[in-house]
Amino acid sequence: MSVTRTGEPDAPVGPDPHRWWALVVIALAQLMVVLDATIVNIALPSAQRALGMSDGNRQWVITAYTLAFGGLLLLGGRIADLVGRKRTFVIGLIGFAVASGLGGAATTSGMLFGARALQGAFAALLAPSALSLLTTTFTDPKERGKAFGIYGALAGSGAAIGFIVGGLLTEYLNWRWCLYVNIPIAVIAVFGAFGLLRDRPGHRNVRLDVPGAVLGCGGLVAIVYGVSEAESHGWSDPLVLGLLAGGAALLVVFVWWQNRAPSPLLPLHIVKDRNRAGCFLTMGLAVIGMFGVFLFMTYYLQVVLGYSPVKTGLAFLPLTVAIIIGSTQISARLLPHVAPRVLMVPGMILAAGGMLFFTQLTVNSDYAGELLPGLLLLGLGMGLTFMPVFATATAGVAPQDAGVTSATVNTSQQVGGSIGTALLNTIATTSSAAYITAHLRDPAQKALVVREGTVHGYTVAIWWAAGIMLLAGLVAGLMVTARPPRHAPADAAVPESVA
């Protein structure tokens, strides 16, 4: 998830004698960034109760992180080029640790949301510099391929580790430790970075497109805030309409500015390519549904079915395993021989099929019979899609555009997750409230009706998610017309898409 500069001539000359230990430090930092999404998901129900969050606002724990991460990722890559990758890496680690400490100590929901946004901002510094350091530390192509494989395996396992560690910490210590746990990891990585990483100074001629970052991030925040406010105010409320219109206007100005900026954050020729634009759209739409499932399934398992945090974390593992199998064992083997959309379209249909299992949930659903098949189908479908999306989007780009293209795929992933979490949470809470109002006639039945209404809201939102995933499949089928690659995809493609 990062900006790489693989074609630059500033890599250190000769192999680094500490390069394999340096890989451990780099992978540890990336593991922390990846782990932080799922570990907080498991802790969210406990954090909501402790801080008194409303159902409409709880999604900000997720979206504050993903919005800041995705919105600032391209700028983070530029900063790494300007001030140096190692220095940016260390600043990112220290900032991430401080933000994690603030989040763990949060006494109000607003403090937690702010800390999560701060985490996302420092993750946007950390992720590009981590992968850039990896490409400059390993200069031999064979070693670089092996390093990317190890890096990808560790980063890809972050989600699974997050589910388990999040469950253990929440159940046996406190939800706050799901944030505090980043501090010792970051401290170890900082000391390792000072002792093991080497990098040349940054380029003084690099320009930062700060207006572009403000316009792009501001537009996304306004849209997500407008969607979240629709839960309490309604979609026709002037505040909601104003936020949505204002966000859209800022994004239009962002596009206009990118055509005129001396050093644009996102060179528009990258998104004008039909295949790349199709990949960016497919990724954004696909992730909308997946992030929604993470949120709803966590609450469904813990609040409705009464699972413990540890049991909830274990329940998600089949999804992670299915994503890794779909990406590394199916897509990676077939992509050299078939057109990318031959994998992406069935992948999205499979994922939508998995969603259909979740639309049948009740207050007493059985995990093995109703949840597990859906998780496996969703995971396989996402795995089939992620790999060709990343490989196709980054194929055939000029060396100077490789980093920004890679970052744009990941930006679309984070932005899709932000908008999707806010949108689906609003749909779920609105549908739940309407159901409870319509069915609550006997006060003695209130507890049951509330549980039924909660599940009803989840299923309505998941129907929308399934439809969005089918739309992603349609976009992939119509826009991604690339032929099978002549060579196997780059070593970086598998780890990036899995991570």
Automatic annotation (TrEMBL):
Its main location: membrane. Residues 22-484 form the Major facilitator superfamily (MFS) profile domain. GO terms for biological process: response to antibiotic. One of its GO terms (cellular component) is plasma membrane. InterPro entries: EmrB-like, MFS, MFS_dom, MFS_trans_sf, Sugar_transporter_CS. PROSITE patterns: MFS, SUGAR_TRANSPORT_1. Pfam families: MFS_1 (PF07690). Keywords: Antibiotic resistance, Cell membrane, Membrane, Transmembrane, Transmembrane helix, Transport. It is a multi-pass membrane protein. Gene3D superfamilies: MFS general substrate transporter like domains (1.20.1250.20), Multidrug resistance protein D (1.20.1720.10). It is found in: Cell membrane. GO terms for molecular function: transmembrane transporter activity. The chain crosses the membrane at residues 20-40, 60-77, 89-111, 117-136, 148-168, 174-196, 208-227, 239-257, 278-301, 313-335, 342-363, 375-398, 419-438, 458-480. PANTHER family: BLR6921 PROTEIN, MAJOR FACILITATOR SUPERFAMILY MULTIDRUG TRANSPORTER MFSC. NCBIfam families: efflux_EmrB. This is MFS transporter. It comes from Streptomyces populi.
